Amino acid sequence: MRIDLHTHSTASDGTDTPAELVRNAAAAGLDVVALTDHDTTRGHAEAIAALPESLTLVTGAELSCRLDGVSLHLLAYLFDADEPELLRERELVRDDRVPRAQAMVAKLQELGVPIEWAQVARIAGDGSVGRPHIASALVELGVVPTVSDAFTPDWIADGGRAHIVKHELDPFTALRLVKAAGGVTVFAHPLAVQRGRTVPETAIAELAAAGLDGIEVDHMDHDEPTRARLRGLAADLGLLATGSSDYHGSRKTCRLGEYTTDPEIYGEITRRAAGAFPVPGAGGRRP
After folding, report:
1. Is 102:74 a contact under the CB 8 Å cutoff?
2. With contact defined as beta carbons under 8 Å apart, do 87 and 63 qualify?
3. Does residue 116 contact residue 128 with C-beta atoms inside 8 Å?
4. Which of 26, 196, 206, 213 has a CA between 20 and 30 Å from the CA of residue 114?
5. Confidence of residue 286 (pLDDT cuts 50, 70, 90)
């Protein structure tokens, strides 16, 4: 089985619609794909309706969190999307995205960049606007050559010249809420140092003690020594070690299925989940 547990669609900051994403995942030879848009589950229904027979969909979201001033992302799988408290917190994060992005555009303008809010809104479309949309605008303007080059201290990386802090969940609160909604949690790209500051391993241990289920080990932003280090940390802390592409369509260079999760780990994630079940192919129709 080929299993990719971290992808994004136009419901947040990817360039594939949810329907296109599941079709592309099947074409890439995946057996299982997780749709984990930022702080939203809006794309799930469309993905389920378009699901090819050969593909199973894991519903999820990537939750924006902050610990001691450091931004981190928590992948939440197979939770009850209608659980009121978790839904309310996701909406608070989403509602802050537009004013935050507008403030970042204003900062870029102060730095002499000829960016306009209308340009960013056009790029975001119906998705939850975020930094990748601003980065794409900077690419369009020729300010930076690639989206990744915008995520530097010169521009919109954490603490960068044009960065604005957004509303984010306390990760311990997020763990509690996801667990209460029957979900399973994995710390996304925990040592992606090129994105900005990362939390120390002691914090990962504290999160593990608080109920974190796993850490994303195999990821494009982790080099081989980092993956080995994280695999050892997962073993020491009793955490599941996952692998994922973090696919964003054409917005990033990673390919669907570029990194995958071991079937035994996937089986353990589904065993622990109580809020939702993986959706089988053929538009969610069970045989």
Report:
1. no
2. no
3. no
4. 196
5. very low
Q: What angle do CA 85, 124, 276 make, to 5 degrees?
A: 35
Token duo for residue 107: 């900062």
What values do phi and psi take at 60, rounded to 5? -170, -170
**183: which 2 tokens?**
């979900």
Task: Classify strands 214-218 and 240-243 as parallel, antiparallel or unpaired.
Answer: parallel
Bridge partners (DSSP) of residue 72 are 65
Whether the per-residue pLDDT at 98 is higher than 70: the answer is yes
Read off the pLDDT of each residue in 141-153 and give the average, rounded to a whole number: 94
Confidence of residue 283 (pLDDT cuts 50, 70, 90): low
pLDDT on residue 253: 83
CA–CA gap between residue 23 and residue 63 (Å, rounded) = 25
**What is the C-alpha separation between 33 and 268, in angstroms, rounded?**
16
Residue 69 exposed, middle or buried by CB count within 10 Å (0-12, 13-18, 19+): exposed
Half-sphere exposure of 71 (CA within 13 A, CB side): 17
